[in-house]
Task: structure prediction
Amino acid sequence: MKRLQLQRWSSSVLAPRARTVNRLHQHIYGQRYQSTVSPVQARDDQTAAIFEDSTTQDEQLAQIVKDSHTRRSHLQYPSPPVEAAQQSAKLAALHARLYLPSRLPVQTLARALVDQTADPNPNFNNASLATLGHDLLSYYATEHLICTYPRLPLTVIFAAMYAYAGPKTLAAMAREWGVEMATLPGGEVDPGLLQFRRVEPGSEVETGSSRSARPYEHNKLWRKTVTSKVFYDDEFGDPLKGPGMSAGGVTTEQASAEFVRAVMGAIYLHAGRAAAKRFFEQHFLSRHLNISELFNFRAPARDLTRLCARESFERPVAKVISETGRHSRHPVFVVGIFSGQDKLGEGAGASLIEARERAAVAALKGWYLYSPLNVRVPSSMEEPSALPWKPVHVDLGEVIV
Amino acid sequence: MAASLATKRPFLTLPFLLPSLSDSLALGFRRNQSSYRRTKQRLRVKPDSSFSPSTLEHDHIIHNPPSSAPNVYHTPSKFLPADDVRKASSLSSTATVNVDELPGVYKSMPERKYHLTPSDIEEIRKLRLNDPMTWSRNKLAKRFDCSPVFIAMVCQASPEKREIQARVLEAVQSRWGPKRRMAREDRQLRREAWGRDA
Result:
C-alpha cells in the first residue's frame, strides 16, 4: 500500500504557514507592522461612508448624533437604563435559560442584576426584591426541612438551611446559571451582566456591626444556647449583621447571592406564589443534600441511652453480630445495638469500641432522620382545591444530656 | 514436517511454554489431587434459603441484597411513631436472630445496684474535698463499691488537686517523642471521626 503524500494537500487543508515575503512584494505593498495596524472601528468606517455617499447622509448623521447622545445619557446614570434591557442578548438568553415565566419582564431581570452598591437608588437596584426573595427562600426551605424531617436537631437544621439557601450556595447557583460580572458598574454596561462595586483589594473586610437584640450581647464569653439562636439570630444560626460594606463594596459571593434572591422575589411579584414555589422546587430543592452527613455526635452511646430512657424503650445493649480476624492486624467487628428484641442500629469497625460507637451513631441517625409518609408543607394549602390540612408530626425535640 | 520444524526452534525463544515466575511462586498453593476435596469442601457454602425452590403457590420476588451497612434513612420500627402506617406493617418487624444468644461487646455487663444513699454521697464528697490525694476516684469507687464514673458524676476534685493533676499530665507528656505524640493525636482524631461517621 502506498503511503499518503501528506505534503501534497497539507498546504490547502492545514493552516497556512507564515509565508516569507520576497523583496518585490515588500516593495509594492509596503511593510505593515503590528504597531501600525489600526484597530477596526465600525464608527470610523461609517463616518467615512457618509462623506462618500451623500444620499443617505442626513439619516446616518442623525443616527450617529443620536447614538452619541444616548451613550452620553447612559453614562450619566449609575446603572443601565430601562430601555437597554430590551436590546441585551445576554439578558434574553438568561431569561430563556432559567425558563422564567413570560410574565416576568426582562426589565425586572435587569433590575435584579443591579446591586445596591452599583446604584444606591432603591427604585433601580435589587435590594427590595432581594429582601422579599430572601424571606421566601428561608420560609420554603424551613417548612420543607421541618415537615420532611420533624426530628432533626436544631444545629442540623441550621446547617441544612445554610446548605439550601446560604450565600455560598446562591453564589454557586448564579455561577451555574452563567451570570457574568461587569468589571465596574455604570450606565453603559450590558444590562445582562451582574453589576456591583467590588471590595478594594487589600481592604479590611468588616464583618458588620452586630444588630442582635440579645440582651447580653456585650458579654462575649457567655455561652449562646442553640435555642436562643432561634430568637435572636438569623435562619442559619449566625448572628444578625448590619450592613457590612467595607468602603462601599461587596464581595462577588454577596452580590451573586443578592441577585439569586432578587430573582426569587421578582418571580413572586410578577408570576405569583405558585410560580415562585415551582422555581424553588426546581432550582433549590432539586439540589442533592445528604442530611445524614451533617451530624456530629460527641457521645453517641450516652445520647442513645438517654433517648431510650426518655421514650421508655428498653435499655440499649450492644451485641456482636459478626466478627472476623479478632487476633489479626485488621479485625472487623459488626456490632448491633438492640433494645429488647429490636435492632436500633448497626455499625462496623476495627475495634469493638469503634463498632459500638458507629452503631450508636447509626441508631441516633435512624431516630433523627425519621420522615413521615406523604409529607405536606403548610404552603401547599395555598393551592386551589387543596385537601383539608392534617397536622404534621411534631416531635419532642432532640436528646439533651 | 511440523514436528520437525518445532524441534528446530530453540525452546527458550518461546517463553509462554515455560512456567511463569508467579506460577513457580504459587506452587505451594496449587490445587492437587490430594487437596482437591478439601478445597471443594471449603467452598461449599450453603446458599441462602431464598434460593431454594419455593414452596409458595403464588409468585414472589427473591431479594438478596449484597451485605452492606443498613441505610440510616430507614427508620427502625421501634423508632416509628404510633400513628405511622409502617409501624403496623409486617415488613418492618423481621426478627431473624435471637438477641439473647448473641455475644455482648463486653465480657460482663456491670450489674447496677443502686445501693448508695444520700448520706453515702455526702461522705464521698467530704472525703474527696478534705483529702484529695488519698481519696482518688478509683479508691473511692473501690470503697463504696461503685464505678469511678459515678464518683465523677457525684463530686469534683478541688481546684488545687486538679491543677496538680494537670501539671503531672504535662510532665508526662513532655517526655513523649514526636512519634508517640502524633500517634496519640491521630487516635483522638480517629475517635472524633466516628461521631461524624467518617
Residues 32 and 39 of chain B are 10 Å apart (CA to CA).
